[in-house]
Target: Ferredoxin
Amino acid sequence: MSSYTCSLVKERCIACGLCAVYAPAIFDYDEEGIVLFHQEPEATHQYISENHYASILKAYQKCPVRAILIEQSSNQSNRH
Ligand code: SF4
Model:
């Protein structure tokens, strides 16, 4: 089974707020409205569980500046 990693490119984020509309369990914002992971505010990437994939994919598609990236990985060797 393949797994996915979501990465955030915070320098690109324009604080539009859309990602948390589509994936509120995953995304949150700092005090300036810049995206971060809800559960790991310091992280720049996070493993995506199967049940969150659809909502993260939606956020990825809706982000106007491609600040959210989804990468497929065949193993979980870089989990943290
Ligand atoms: S949708 Fe993109 S630009 Fe908008 S807050 Fe989320 S990461 Fe930032």
Notes: Residues 50-62 form the longest helix (13 residues). The domain at 4-72 is CATH 3.30.70.20 (Alpha-Beta Plaits). The mean pLDDT is 92. The beta strands are 3-8, 27-29, 35-37, 45-48, 68-73.
